[in-house]
Amino acid sequence: MTPTVRIQREDFDPAAELDALTAGRPDVGAVASFVGLCRDEGGRLSALELEHYPGMAEAELSRVAAEAASRWPLLGLTAVHRFGLIRPGERIVLVAAASSHREAAFGAAAFLMDFLKTRAPFWKREHLATGALGPWVEAKVSDDAAAARWAGAEQG
Amino acid sequence: MKLVYFAWVRERVGQAEEHVAPPSDVRTVAELVAWLKTRGEGYAHAFENERIIRTAIDQVHAKPEASIGGAREIAFFPPMTGG
Prior knowledge:
A: four-stranded antiparallel sheet; 33% helix; 34% strand
């Protein structure tokens, strides 16, 4: 099973990504997916700007995906992350995991998101509804805690 | 070696990348940061709270005590906020 990892400026089609995971695969019994969107934070934001480290973003996501594949019996795994200017309501990230059964699919998708947030080299900057450039988004302690909960856990 | 900077580290340093030749007694990431901080206000500002700055050596996450010997590209950046 080779994970699909893409870093791209353009939008993606979640339905097409899920179809690609299951096409011609009658052994797949479960697909769990997560799509992260840009929020407007109560009308405060006009957009988020996503900066990334080209090369390492792909490499690190691939390493996290390989780790997920070693922990769960997966039949497919997809991670797509956008960069550039993304407006409220638009998609930022997709992860999807395919397996025979739901436990592995849910677990791998959650694991991939938790580690993507703390390990993949992306940084968000706010663009305010006033037209001004806002601050860089600060990392959340809760994201580190979410990733740490997987330490030592087998097939959580 | 090539240094690359991202997000507010890049803004404070004032450039996205540069080539540097640190003295031979600079052997670890932490020693490289200490040396960079002597190179001007922008560097001092970028690394003023150096414990939160993340590092990658040749596109793999690295700790402050990691050796920089043989590194081609070293990146400095804030904690990541993707997803």
